[in-house]
Write a structure and sequence with these properties.
Length: 386
């Protein structure tokens, strides 16, 4: 009676976790269409627990269907579930993914299981093959999380996968000590097997919880990025760059760290839009924004001020250094090659440094703006100091 109760517990624990996981997977599949398109991996994360539920369905046929069908179907789907979790994580973290090595591993394990189901029936080598195959997938999952995962949710998933790897290896290597050739799946002859089933099922749930936390965190980061960056150029938007300028002004007032602002305007931008089309104008803005960012120091920031205007914030800078930086940026833009998609262009730049009597960064922006108009009036494609 005890054996029956423990065996039933093993199966019911796995079934309960599989159903809960399937619900969580369905949620991931349902919400992925509402997530930004650059958040990848949710499809595989959502598919994985559905495969695990399918595996549990196969295991439920034990005693009602041929053992080889139950074993190959259930184990194959469970390995596919683990591979899908790995694929989801790699895609989510922006890592390259190739299916064929893992498909080959799963097929190789299933071929080995078939031999020990049909030719030399023995549960122990089947457990060894399945356990080590699953452990290899989980170990690869642990490795990618250790290298590329960031944040609490990624660390939680890493711990779950590392623990899962350890449990799988331990169960696989101990099979010749605790199992017999005729041991059946969900057999209660060993408390270790009960712990193995419960631990595996719980780990899958923990991975899915971590996946949802990682997805939610990424969405939050995306919204924060959208709130502070220009959608077209990727530069900071006007509000964000001016907020940084206000912070720099406060540091100047309290700590004496002077800063400078560059106001940059693309020359004859209306002509580019009128002659080449607005798409060409957009591509020009994107190219110029990238060039400006590459030409600045790591502590400097660039934002789109509006239309074809950009503003660069140079913390800890004197006027001479700011002028040299402006000349450098002007030359970089002038040197951009024209191609079939974007025409050549130039920029005019007004430079201003904070000075005594400036009540806010608005005063610095105003001087930079007046200097920019002087550069325009003097013939464009030049730098003027304010």
């Amino acid at each position: 009676m005890t054996s029956l109760d423990l065996r039933s517990f093993n199966f019911l624990a796995a079934l309960q976790c599989a159903v809960m996981g399937a619900v969580m997977g369905a949620v991931l599949l349902g919400i992925r269409h509402n997530f930004p398109s650059n958040i990848k991996g949710l499809r595989y994360w959502g598919l994985a627990p559905l495969l695990a539920l399918g595996a549990t369905g196969f295991y439920a046929l034990l005693g009602h269907a041929p053992a080889v069908l139950v074993g190959l179907g259930g184990n194959g789907l469970l390995m596919a579930c683990t591979v899908a979790l790995l694929a989801g994580t790699r895609e989510f973290l922006g890592q390259p993914w190739r299916w064929w090595p893992w498909v080959a591993l799963v097929l190789g394990c299933l071929a080995g299981l078939t031999v020990f189901f049909v030719v030399w029936p023995d549960y122990r080598p089947r457990m060894l093959i399945f356990g080590l195959g699953m452990a290899a997938i989980c170990a690869a999952h642990t490795q990618v999380l250790a290298r590329h995962g960031r944040g609490f949710a990624a660390r939680l998933m890493l711990l779950a996968m590392a623990w899962q790897t350890l449990v799988l290896v331990t169960r696989a290597l101990s099979t010749y000590w605790i199992d017999a050739p005729d041991t059946q799946r969900f057999d209660a002859g060993s408390v270790i097997h009960m712990v193995f089933v419960a631990t595996f099922s719980f780990s899958i749930l923990l991975v899915l919880v971590s996946a949802q936390l990682m997805a939610s965190e990424r969405v939050r980061q995306e919204f924060e990025h959208l709130a502070s960056h220009d959608e077209l150029t990727g530069a900071l938007n006007r509000r964000a760059i001016l907020r940084l300028a206000e912070q720099a002004h406060a540091r100047w007032q309290h700590e004496g760290q002077a800063y400078a602002l560059l106001l940059l305007d693309l020359d004859h931008f209306k002509h580019i839009n009128d002659s080449r089309g607005h798409q060409a104008g957009d591509r020009t803005l994107v190219k110029v924004a990238a060039t400006l960012q590459q030409g600045l120091r790591p502590l400097d920031r660039v934002g789109r001020y509006g239309g074809e205007e950009f503003v660069a914030l140079l913390p800890i800078s004197d006027l001479a250094s700011a002028q040299r930086m402006a000349e450098r940026l002007r030359a970089r833009v002038e040197g951009l090659p024209a191609d079939t998609d974007t025409p050549a262009c130039t920029v005019s730049i007004g430079v201003a440094r904070v000075q005594a009597g400036d009540a806010s960064c608005d005063a610095v922006v105003g001087r930079a703006d007046r200097a920019l108009y002087q550069a325009k009036a003097a013939g464009r494609n030049q730098v003027s100091l304010g």
